[in-house]
Request: fold
Amino acid sequence: MATVLAPRMARRYDVLQKQRIQLTTDMVERMVGHRTRLVQQTEGAWHEGEDDSVYDYGNASRAVDRYLVFVRALPRGYYAVSLVVVFFVLIAQPTQQALALSLDGLTLATAALAALGEIVGLAGGVCATWNTVRPFVWGNGNPAESRRADVEIAGAGPVVELRGACVRYEGRSTPALAGVDVAIDKGDRVLIEGPSGGGKTTLTALLAGLRQPTDGLVLIRGLDQHTVRAADRSKVIAAAPQFCKNHIFTNSLAFNLLLGRAWPAAREDLHDAMQVARALGLGPLLERMPAGLFQAVGATGWQLSHGEQSRVYLARALLQRAEVVVLDETFDALDPASLELCMKATMACAQTLVVVTHR
Reply:
C-alpha cells in the first residue's frame, strides 16, 4: 500500500508546491513591476491570468486534500470491516482468548495503518520540498522558473534610461538628484564631471543598478529594471565602482579579472583576460609574477600597487562583455602615460562608455 500511495501523494504535493511558488512569484512581480504594467498595458489587461492561476492552485490543493482524506479513511474502513470479521470469529469460537486476540490484533493493525497514512502524507511533502531545493543543492536545473522579461541586447532605443529619477538620502533636506532625465544610446561616450558631492556617484549607481531611485524610473531597453532578470542586466551593464568600494580577493589574478564570467575559467576566458590585461599595461606585472595569471594576489598574496589595482578593476568590468561600461573615478589613480594607454584600450573594448572623473 505504501509503494502505491507514496509516489502518487508525492506527485500531487509536487504539483501543489509548483503552483504555490508560481502564484507567489506572479504576485511579487506584479507588485514590484506595477509601474511598468501601468505604462505598457491597457487597463483591461492589468489582471489578465490572475484568476486562472488561483483556479489552478485551488485544483492542486483539492487533489492533495482528496488523497489525504482517502489515506486517512483507510484505517477507519479497515476497522469497520475487521469488526465484522471479528463478529464471525467470535460466533465460531466464543472464548475470552479469541476475543482478546481479535481485538488486540484489530487495534494494533488500525494504529499501524493510521501511522502509515501519516508517513505517506509526510513523505509526499518531503519529496515536493526536495524537488524545490534540489537545484540549489546540486547546482543544476532552474528552480521556480523566472518569468521576468528577457532583454534583447540588439533592440532599438536607449540602452539605459532615467526618467524623472530622484534620490533622497536619509537625514538630508535636499535630494542628491532630482528630476534627472538621461538616455544612454548604444555607442555613446559620456563624460560626467563635477565637484565632490555633486551627485556623480549617485547618478552612475542608478545607471548601473547599484541604487534604486526614490522616485522616477530606470529603464533597460525600455523595460522597468525590476522586470529584468539580474543575468540579463549583467549582459547590458557592467560597472567599476570607486576604488574604495572595490576589492582584490585573496585568490589568483585570473579569478579577480574574471569575476563577471563563469569559474573555473575556460581557455577562451583566460585568453581574453591576458589580452585585456596586456592592453591595460599589466604585461610587465604578469612577467614578474612566477605563476602569471594564476599568481595568488590579495591580502596574503602578491601585493598590487594602487595603479595596478585600478587597472584590475577596469579589466574586470571590460571582461564582462557588457554593452555599457560605467567607470566611477577608475582612472584617477593612474599617471598620465598609464591613463592614455588605459583610455585607448577602454575605448576599443567598450561599446558604450560612461566615465566619471574629477579631471
Q: What stands out?
A: The mean pLDDT is 81.
